[in-house]
Specification:
By secondary structure, the chain is an all-alpha fold. It is 60% helix and 0% strand. The longest helix has 35 residues, at 35-69. The chain has 2 helices and no strands. The N and C termini lie far apart (66 Å).
Amino acid sequence: MLKSRNTEKELSALSDVSGSLAKPVLSTPDTELAAGDRFRVDVFNGMVDCLIVKLRKRMSEYSAVHRLFGFLEEFESLTPED
């Protein structure tokens, strides 16, 4: 029972991601998924979507740090005359 509560919390955290890319799978009359398959597809898409959003945010933050401190990489290649 405890494991299902944690899963519900994780799923609610995934649904709170702003900038979401994936849309949940909707059952239409011509494509009907079993409940277990639909759950797997929706959860997997949600997790991948959350991962993409978080990685994009992290990449932009690292890019900002690199813009400020990227010049430090050049110090190793400088000679004493420079």
